[in-house]
Amino acid sequence: MTRYKPVEAKRLHVQIVEAIVGRIVSGELEPGTFLPSEPEMAMQFGASRAVVREALRVLSEKGLVEIRHGAGTRITEPESWDPLDVDILAARRERGTMVSVLQDLMEARRIFECEVAALAAERAEEDDLQAMQSAVRLMQGTVEDHVAFSHADAVFHRALLQATRNRALIKMGDSMRELLTFSQQTTSSLPGVLKRALRDHVAIFRAVKRGDGAAARTAMRKHLAGTERDVKALLNL
């Protein structure tokens, strides 16, 4: 008989965070309203006050709540939420509220990734080119599998970032990774998207390999323009 390894249950404060994030993102908990007091939340969740306090700290770091000592914990306006937070993004996607997030993402990608591609073309070394080429080959072999293709796509963009040799850009790119993944997963299931994306990435790679920054920038801009059209078509914008 097959035996499974024991799984580790999520820490209780994480479960509390996920529950509250979902209710805030859905609008069930409206901005300006207050969460119950720590003792009340501890009773509702069957947790200690220390666990509730840790959950509130995490929610505050995400920008979802404002802890006012002596007054309570207030739900903040959506403008205060961390746009790159994994839990918030997941809750938004589950509830179909990703439109504004994806629009912001595409604007940010146009500004950021075109210049990353150009700089990568100027600075890429042999190991960077090998990493990009490996990612392209993986994309070629997974063009019918959008999950595996999205993974290879992410690997390619990570290799581009590394090739810039700019630690600030790499850090910024890492913080945007979840948004990029959401964008890729949102559009990759559309008919013909993966084949076009493959052609785009081949063009970007060839420009980087030639050391042609202008061509790399243009190829990336073309790729992102196609992605933006896909997003708008998917969301009926």
Series of H and E elements: HHHEEHHHHHHHH
* Overall morphology: elongated
**Superfamily at the CATH H level of the largest domain?**
GntR ligand-binding domain-like
CATH topology call of the largest domain = Four Helix Bundle (Hemerythrin (Met), subunit A)
Order of strands in the sheet with most strands: 1-2
Which CATH-level-2 architecture of the largest domain?
Up-down Bundle
Classify the helix fraction into a percent range.
Answer: 55-70%
What is the count of helical runs?
11
Average pLDDT reading: 87
The termini sit apart by 53 Å
- In total, the number of strands is 2
Q: What is the topological layout?
A:
Blueprint (H helix, E strand, L loop, with lengths): L11 H15 L11 H8 L3 H13 L3 E4 L3 E4 L10 H9 L4 H25 L2 H16 L4 H18 L3 H9 L1 H11 L5 H18 L2 H22 L3
Antiparallel strand pairs: 1-2
Helix pairs in contact: 1-3, 1-4, 2-3, 5-7, 5-9, 5-10, 5-11, 6-7, 6-10, 7-9, 10-11
